[in-house]
Each structure stands twice: as C-alpha cells, then as structure tokens.
Specification:
Structural class of chain B: mainly alpha
Shape of chain B: flat
CATH architecture of chain A: Alpha-Beta Complex
Number of strands of chain B: 2
Helix content of chain B: 25-40%
Distance between the termini of chain B: 41 Å
Strand order of the largest sheet of chain A: 4-6-5-10-11-9-7-8
Distance between the termini of chain A: 22 Å
Largest interface: A-B, 70 and 51 residues
Strand order of the largest sheet of chain B: 1-2
Structural class of chain A: alpha/beta
CATH superfamily of chain A: Amidase signature (AS) domain
CATH class of chain A: Alpha Beta
Oligomer: heterodimer
CATH architecture of the domain at 5-43 in chain B: Orthogonal Bundle
Strand content of chain B: under 5%
Number of domains of chain A: 1
Largest sheet of chain B: 2 strands, antiparallel
Strand content of chain A: 5-15%
Shape of chain A: globular
CATH class of the domain at 5-43 in chain B: Mainly Alpha
Largest sheet of chain A: 8 strands, mixed
C-alpha cells in the first residue's frame, strides 16, 4: 500500500469509498507518522490515538452499513483552541492547566458528526497570540520545511502553526485553525498549505477559546484548495449558541470549484505595494495576476486607502478585546491557581504564573487602552478607523469581485529571528489583518518558492459570504502554480516510521519541494 | 505616548497580573513602543465617522424567553481548582 499520509483529503475520501483501504488503516498510518514526527516537530500537544482508532472503527462499521457521511473516516488534527469534550484543552497556555471541557466546540462537533476522526490536539501560539508558534507553553513547532542546503529550524507561522505544520508534514489530512489577524493564512503561506478564514459569522465561535471576539473566526488548513472547500463545507453553518453566527445556507463549495474564473474581476490594491517589499514577493504577485488573467479573469488596479492603518488599529482592538476575554482566567472556576494572601493576591499570582510574556503584554496594552480617560483616544478611534477600512472594501466591491495580494511580506523565518521585537513580529500580519478588521473572507494559496526554497502564498479577499468565489479563484492559482510539498521527511524517527519504500516520493504525483503542474 | 513605571504598575494592578521590578522596567519600554506606533492613527480624520459596531450587517437574533439549559452543576464545577460541594472555594473576602 502506498503511503496513506501523502494522500489529499479528497484522494483519501475516494480511497475509502472504493474500499482501497479502511478508515482504521488510514488512521493507523497517521498515528504512526505522528509518533515518528512529534519528537522532532512538536506539532501535536496531545495526540489521541485511542480516541482516533475508536472513531475510525465506528466509521468503518458505519460505512459497511452504507451510512457514510461527507467526511466519513477522514483523520484530522484539531487546534488546541477548540474545546474537546473530556479531552484536555489548553489554548497552549499554562493557565488552563489540565482543563477538560465538558462540551465540544460546535465546529468540532460538526466535523465529527460528518464522520471525521480526531487524531489529537495541535500546538498553537498561546491563546492564538503570535505569528510564529513560539509563544506556546508547549514550546515552538518546527516547520517541516527547511531552507535549501541549511538545517536551521524554521517557524511554521502562527498562531495555527501546529495546524499548518501537521498538514504540510502529512500528520493529518487537514486541520482546524482559527484566524484573528492572519493566524490561518500566514501559517498556510509559510508551509505551502491552503488556509481560509471565512467571513465573520460563517463558522460558529462557540466552544473555541476566545481571543478577540469581533475578529476571531474558525477555518481549515488543508493540502489543496479542494480539500479546504470540503472542510469548510462541514465546519460552517448556523449555530443558535453563537449570536454572531449567521443563519444562511452553506453553499456547496466543492461544486463551485468547477466554475472557473472566466470574467471574474480581480482587484490589485496599490497600497499593498509596501515599502521595502522584496522582489520575490513582487514577482509572485505578478505571477498570480498573470495566471488569473490567463484563466479568463480581468485585472483592475484598485485603491484601499486606509490599508496602512489596519495594523495599528488592530493592535488596539485585539488587545482590548483580549484583556476583557482573558479576565475569566482567575484561578477560581478552572485551570491553574497559585494561592496568595487574599483573593486579589491569588488572582495576581495565578495570572502572573499562568500567562506567558506575549499574552501578559497584550493584556496590559488592552487594559491601558480601555482604562479611564484613554477609551476614546484609543479604542473608539480604532473602531472608527475600522469603519473606514470596511468602507474601502465596500467601494472596491463596486468594481471587482475579489482582491489579490501577497499573504506575507516574507518567507518563513528561523526561530528567534523576530521573537525579540514585538513590532517586527506584528508586521507579519500586515497583509492579512485588514481582512479581519473588515470581517471579510480571505484565503491563502501556495504560489511559489522563495530563493531559499521555502513556500510563499498569495491571498485572495472576497465579498462577505462569497467564499465560493475565493475557492474558484484559488483553484485557478493552484492549477497554474502546482502544489508545493516537502520531499524528504527528515524528521521521521527511524524504526517508528512507515517502511522506507513507502515514504519515498512516487514519480510526479508525489515529487515535491519543486513546482509541478496542478490540476488533473 | 510615553508610559512610565508607575503607569505600568497601575495597569498591571488593574489587569490583576503581578509584575516584578525587572518586568516593570522592560514593560515600560515595550508598551511605550507599541503605543507610540499606534499613535499614527491620529493622522486619520474620523470626526464624522461612526465607530464599527459589527462587521456583518445582521439583526440581533432574538429567541423565546425560556430556559434551554441548566441542571449541570457537576459539569460547571468539574474543572475548578478547589470545590466544596457545588461551590467554588476562594480565600476569605469579607472580614
């Protein structure tokens, strides 16, 4: 049997349908791969192999009865921000300690009800605050990607760094993720995977550890555009338990892929041509424009004049909402408690010991901007700027259907390269954060390799609830650019891995770390 | 906006996070840096702009006023660090 962990979600779905392999075999292959990889990559903070095998067996039984559901038997990773019933959920913070939720997130429940299998909980930046996965209380995730001829450890992006690395390394078929300022799209771009942040309200936030409630959205990270479309189709939907979740039908995203981009109006915002943008990012963007044009789309230069203010406004709004959301971690109802001389002292000790440096920094910024006398100058001002950012897009939708930009200003960086300077790290989100501020859907699709041999992504931004168009346009880019996968699985611990013959890349289809034609 | 050490301490107190002297010093610089950087929003004229209240136009959902949940006291205290029966236990608050 070929290496099942190299299959895409769609290919695995077909294999299960044709009974080429069972859900149990597919799950076992992934469990083995995780055992071999986790010591080196630190992708899963809690593998759940027994849980996965039980789900897989039940899934095989269900298929045998002819009752297969859309994701029947497909093993996924679940970001540790999603509450899992009876299974430890920490948001990768010490403050949640051994928290075992008594409920399942709605998005998680939607996936398991669609037949999916959970392989475990994936690493992320603590409370999703970070762009490199270096702030996790469980330690950083190592990207499966390396620079050409070098072996320094690269970051997989963040905050969904466990999700992006797991998908890129074949340690799940696809993964859940969340995005508050770029936490799905930036890690997807840095690992050669596809990540979509849907429109605010498309997926329920219920049961997901809150960071900044007006910005947070769940979405998938997957190996291909089709896989992301399949995943979102099951994750999305109305949930009465989240008042901001939208009661609107979920289109068939996978079916939309076949529609192509003929006549699609693509906007290219001049404000994204930021100072100091590297030549390779500019070239990548130009390629994206050329590919969409060749596929029948029309290109229009547009202006989004308030773009440069999105990031500073974000670093008021997000910490403000975080400081209020994270007030709940007080050592009383769940998680860590560090006793003090009185109740206030207990709160202060608990929160000092439980929160990591970046989380503390953001809570303090948020507390400051919301404090008496500063609310109008900071928070209110930022929310007004946010209105202007959204208006920029509202105007753009009069002339274009999607907007094309780079996802990140640079390729993956090495450990420690940016973690000393909070502002340098915040700039990672410069192209992604506007989308959250305006509540729009955005997808990152792999589009090329940097001069260092590491992946780069392009971002497509869409109208509210028009994820289907994003998938169509992303498919056109994937068809032209091909897929980018890691060739040598250098991280696999010997003896625990699949047989050597199986892990060798098969010709063409599984060859990687180089461009290959996409499409069928 | 330059944040001084006493402001850092006041904010940390409001946020209920204990900080060491050393941390107060380094936070002084970090918070000032971030706040100086967001000052650029002052360039934008927002005098006639309403603040964003929701990104997606949507009517506030209403539901029938009836109990849909409850009777799960065990589940609610399940993860608490210190529990007595169905009560969360905290250090003495009232003298």
């Amino acid at each position: 049997m070929s290496d099942l962990t190299r299959l895409t979600l769609a290919e695995a779905r077909d294999g299960l349908k044709k009974k080429t392999f069972s859900a149990t075999e597919l799950t076992e292959a992934h469990i083995k791969a995780i055992e071999a990889a986790n010591p080196a990559l630190n992708v899963y903070v809690l593998p759940t192999p027994d849980h996965a095998l039980a789900q897989a067996k039940a899934s095989d039984a269900r298929r045998a009865k002819g009752e297969a559901r859309p994701l029947e038997g497909l093993p996924l990773g679940n970001k540790d921000l999603f509450c899992t019933e009876g299974i430890r959920t920490t948001a990768c913070s010490k403050i949640l300690d051994d928290f075992k939720p008594t409920y399942e997130s709605t998005v998680g429940a939607n996936l398991w009800n669609a037949g999916a299998v959970m392989l475990g909980k994936l690493n992320n930046d603590e409370f999703a605050m970070g762009s490199s996965n270096e702030t996790s209380a469980f330690g950083p995730v190592v990207s499966p990607w390396r620079r050409k001829g070098r072996d320094d450890k690269l970051v997989p992006g963040g905050s969904s760094g466990g999700s992006s690395a797991a998908v890129a390394a074949g340690l799940c078929l696809a993964a859940t993720a969340t995005d508050t300022g770029g936490s799905i799209r930036q890690p997807a771009a840095l690992t050669g995977t596809v990540g979509i942040k849907p429109t605010y309200g498309r997926c329920s936030r219920w049961g997901i550890v809150a960071f900044a409630s007006s910005l947070d959205q769940a979405g998938p990270i997957a190996k291909t555009v089709r896989d992301a479309a399949i995943m979102l189709g099951s994750m999305a939907g109305h949930d009465p338990k989240d008042t901001t979740s939208v009661d609107a039908p979920v289109p068939d995203y996978e079916a939309a892929l076949a529609e192509g981009v003929k006549g699609l109006r693509v906007g290219v915002p001049k404000e994204y041509r930021v100072e100091g943008m590297s030549k390779e990012i500019e070239d990548l963007w130009a390629s994206g424009i050329a590919w969409l044009k060749a596929a029948g789309a029309t290109i229009h230069e547009i202006s989004l004049p308030h773009t440069k203010y999105a990031l500073p406004a974000y670093y008021i709004v997000a910490p403000a909402e975080a400081s209020s959301n994270l007030a709940r971690y007080d050592g009383v109802r769940y998680g860590l408690r560090v006793p003090g001389k009185d109740v206030i002292d207990t709160y202060e000790n608990t929160r000092a010991a439980g929160f990591g440096k970046e989380v503390r920094r953001r809570i303090l910024i948020g507390t400051y901007v919301l404090s008496a006398g500063y609310y109008d100058a900071y928070y209110l001002k930022a929310q007004k700027v946010r209105t202007l950012i959204k208006r920029d897009f509202d105007e753009a939708w009069g002339v274009v259907d999607v907007v094309l930009t780079p996802t990140t200003p640079s390729p993956a960086f090495a450990f420690g390269e940016k973690s000393g300077d909070p502002l340098a790290m915040y700039l990672e989100d410069i192209f992604t954060v506007t989308v959250n501020m305006a509540g729009l859907p955005g997808i990152s699709v792999p589009a090329g390799l940097s001069s260092e041999g590491t992946p780069l992504g392009l971002q497509l931004i869409g109208k509210p609830f028009d994820e289907a168009t994003l998938f169509r346009a992303a498919q056109a880019i994937e068809d032209a650019a091909g897929r980018f996968t890691v060739e040598a699985r250098w991280w696999a611990r010997k003896g625990a891995s699949a047989p050597a013959a199986a892990s060798k890349p098969a010709p063409a289809k599984k060859a990687a770390a180089r461009k290959k034609p996409g499409g069928k | 906006m330059q944040v001084d050490e006493s402001t850092v301490r006041r904010i940390a107190r409001l946020a209920r996070i204990k900080i060491t002297d050393e941390e107060a010093k380094s936070l002084e610089g970090e918070l000032s840096g971030i706040l100086n950087w967001v000052e650029q929003l002052g360039e934008v004229d927002t005098s006639s702009v309403p603040p964003m209240t929701r990104v997606v136009a949507q009517e506030l959902k209403k539901r029938e006023d009836r109990v849909t949940d409850g009777g799960i006291a065990d589940a609610i205290v399940k993860n608490a660090p210190v529990v007595d029966d169905h009560y969360f236990v905290v250090p003495k608050v009232v003298e």
